[in-house]
Design brief:
- With 220 residues, the protein is mostly helical.
- The protein has 7 helices and 2 strands.
- Strand 1 and strand 2 form a beta hairpin.
- Helix 3 runs parallel beside helix 7.
Length: 220
Amino acid sequence: MSYSKKVQDFINSNDENSVKDFYDKLYEKLIMLSSKEEKLFLWEVVIIFIYYFSNNLKSCEVNFGIISLSENTDLLKLMPIVFGTVMFFLQSVTLQKLELTKTIDLLSVERFAKKIPNGDTRNFIVKIINPFNLSNSLANMINEDSNRIEIAFNFLIIIPLLIIGLTPYYILIQMLIDLYNNHSVDFIGRISFWLTILLSIMVAFYYISGTVRTLKQSIK
């Protein structure tokens, strides 16, 4: 049974008040997930900044209050684990948000746009109902009404953003290489390396399986 069919069966099996209550709960959860996604993204940026800043440390030590960074501090050896964990949580939240958004779109059509015959108008109504978040905004940059100039311009914007989106994966690989080359001889470095390897595999598997599942749902 397709994803849309499951949602439609739920709508057909419940009265209007039940559908409304379910929609309201999903909408609140979507807002919460969007906020959590943005916070995790900011944590990624902070960790990347600290990691590359720390690589410039030589014999000096920088104190951030309760955290002290130096060239050989164990905190830097454990940073890849923290970064991989944040990436995993961010992917989990993003994939949940995509699935939730699809459900809300289907419910929005039923509640607010079912009687609108024009498909473009119906899609417009559904889009403006959803709460604002950056990923949805980027996904809506190219639509059926865009002309060739708008599409070309949007692609020029999206391509660098896609490259930026792949940057954390590149940095995670760089962290692993750095751990192997410089810290594999001590216990904390070895533990950090293998735990980060495990996290990297989980991140890759979760990303691929989640993306495939989302694409299949979109096709259906």
